[in-house]
Sequence to fold (768 residues):
Amino acid sequence: GMSCGGCAASVKRILENQPEVASASVNLATETAVVWTVPEVQATKNWIKDFGENLASHLTSCGFTSSVRDVTAQKGNRSSQKKREERLAHLKDSGYRLAMSWTLCAACLVGHASHFLVAMAPSWMHMFHSTGFHVTLSLIALAGPGCQILVDGWKSLCRQAPNMNTLVGLGAVSSFIISSIATLIPSLGWRAFFEEPIMLLGFVLLGKNLEERAKLKASSDMTALLNFLPSKAHLLVGSSSEGALPTVEVPCSSLSVGDHIVVLPGDHIPADGTVRGGKSAVDESSLTGEPLPVIKQPGDEVIAGTVNFNGTLTVEVRRPGGETVMGDIVKMVEDAQNRQAPVQRLADKVAGRFSYGVMVLSAATFAFWNMFGTKLFPSVVPHGSAALLALQLSCNVLVIACPCALGLATPTAVLVGTSLGAMQGLLIRGGDILEKFSSVDTIVFDKTGMLTAGKAVVTKAVAIGNEESENVFPINEAIVRKCKLPNWSKLEIFRLAAAVEANSLHPIAKAVVQAARSAGCETAMAKDGTFAQEPGCGATAIVEEKRVSVGTFEWLCRQGVKYGDPPSLEVSNDQTVVYVGVDDSLIGAIYMVDKVREDASTVVESLAQLGISTHVLSGDKNTTAEYVAAMVGIEKEKVLGGVKPDEKANFIAKLRKENRNVAMVGDGINDAAALACSDVGIAMGGGVGAASDVASIVLMGDKLTQILDASELSKKTMRKIKQNLWWPFMYNIVGILVAAGVLLPVTGSMLTPSIAGALMGISSLGVM
Fold:
C-alpha cells in the first residue's frame, strides 16, 4: 500500500507511464486512484473491467497491492464500508505493533535506570544495563514491530521509488550498525546507542498510529452519510387483511423496481419510490438540509435515506439499492475526493523526488561534518570522533524528513470539505471546484427558480374571440373570419396548454399543469413522439390532431402562428405571460406570477459584503427581470432579459474575458450551456438532468442561502489547504537544518535519531 506522499507520487508515475493512460489522480487519504484513458483506447465489451484489472495487476507487481473497485458497490455503502473495515483492521494491527514497540522502549528505559539504581538494586538487575541486553532489545525491535517498515523501505528502494519507510529504515539500521561497530571495536572511542533504533521505531509507529486514527476521523462524515442508508426493508408480500400489512424483512440490495415496501414510523426509507398508501411527515434534512419535515401522501416521491416520522407509508420502489439518489450522492462525493486542487501540484512534484533529495542531504551532512565541520568547529566533536558525529547527524536527517504531510495536505482537506458539504446538502465535485469557488468574484443568477421561488402561480387566462371575457385581445376581424376561430374558453386553453406542458420540467410548465388540474379540466394527452421543446422559448406537440404551441409570442410566430404585431396586454412588472397557439392561430394567453424568494435579498447583500458582484440573466421579458432584480437589490445595469440559452453562455464568456472568476446559478435545460461555460456552475434544487450533469456544485436543498454556505466552506477549505501546505514545507526546511546540526556550533546541542523520529512521526498530524 501507500505509506507517504512519495508512494502516491510513485503510483501516479507508474500509471501515467502506461501507454493507454492519459492522466491519473492518486489520493493518499482515501487510498484510491482514478485514471483517464487516451482516446485511442478501443471501448470493446468489458474493456473497462479488463483494463482496470491489468492496471491493478501491474501496480501490485510494482509493490503497491491494488484491486479494481466494484462500481456497483460503490454506488451503495458496501465499498466504503469495506474500506472502513480495512482501516479499522489496519489500525488494530498498528496498535499491536505500537504496544510491542513501547514495551521494548519501557524495557530500554528500565535498563538505563538500572545504571543509577545499581547500588540499591539486587544483583539480577545488573543484566538490564548490560550491552547484550540492549543489543537484544534492538534486534527484537528491528525484527518485530519494525520489520514491516524495514521490508517495505527496502522493497521501495529496490524498485527505485524510496519512501518514508526507506528513510526510517536507513536511519534505524544505520544507528544499529554504528552501535555494533562501537561495541565490537572499542578502540574507536565511539559511544554505542542501541536504544536509538528502539526509541526511533517506537516514535515512528506512534506517529503512524495517530495518523491512521486521524484519517479514520477525517472520513467519519462520509460514514455518517452512509449510515442514512438502511440495510433492511419490509417487503409487502400480499394484500392486507383486517388492516394488517403482511411483510417480510429483506436486504435492501434485493429490492427490485415495482416492489412494494412498508416504511414504519421512525424508519429510514430504504429505496427511492412513490407513495402508494398512507400519509406521514418525512425528514429530508439528510438530503436537502431543510430542517422542517415534508408531508408525503399517495403520489408523492420519497428518497432513500430520509426518515419517516409519524405514519406508516406503503412505497412502490422506483430506484433500488445502489441506484438511489443517496447512492448517487455518495458516489459523487467519493469521485470529488479524487479530484485534486491545482494548489496541490507543487506538493506532488516535491513529494515525488523527496526521498532522493533527503538521502542526498544526508550524505552531504556526513561529508561536511566528517571533512570540514570538525575543523571549523572543533569544540563540538565528542571525544575527538568526527566520524561518529557525522554519522549521527546524517541519521538525524534521514529520519526527521517527512513526505507524508505533503501528500496529505490537500486530500484530507478535500475529504473533509466535500463530506461536510454533502451533509449540508452541497454536492461539490472536487478539490479543484473548491479552489475555483473560493476565488469567485462574480455570480450570475437565472431569474426563474433562482431569485424567484420557481413555483409560478397562474393568475388568469385570456381567450381570443370570446365576447364574454373581460380581457379580449384586439384582433383583426378579417383574420378572425379567415381563420374561422371558435370562441375558445379559458378551460380549453388550459386543457390544451397543459397537455403540452405536462412533458416539461420547467417551473412555468408545472404552473400551467397545476392550473389546469385546479380548474378541473378534462385530461388531454400529447401524441407520442411529437413533443419538442426549445429552451428559453417554448414547447409544442400534437394534441387531438392539432398542433398546440405554448411559449413566447415571437417563438409562436416562428412556429407558423399568424397574428401580426404582438397583442396589447396590460401586464404588470411582476407578471409573466405565455401565449398559446393552435395550428396557425393565436388562441390565448396565460398570466402567472412567481414570488421572489424570501432569502434572495439577504443572499445578494451578503455576497456584496464579500466583494462578489451579482448579475441577472433571464429568458423572461426585460421589465420582469429588472423588477425582480430591484426587489433583491441588484442594479438595473446588471440585468439582461429576453436572452436565449446561447446568449446566456456568450454573456458568461464575455465576463470571463474581462478576467472575472464567474459562477453561474441555474436549474433548467436553458441554463446548461451557461453553467458549462462558467468557472463554477451551480445547479439549484438538484436541477434537471442537463443542469445537474454540467454543474460543478449541486445544491440539493431549495434554499438560496446554500450558496453562502458553499462560499464559506470553499474559503475555509482553501485556508486549511494552504495551512497544510505551509506547515510541511516549513517543518521539513527547519527540521532538516536542525537535524543536520546547524544549531550545534551555537548551542552545543543536537538532536538524536529517536527525537528526530518522534518529530517526524507527529508531523503529519498537523495536516489532519
In short: The longest strand covers residues 585-593. DSSP finds 29 helices and 24 strands in the chain.
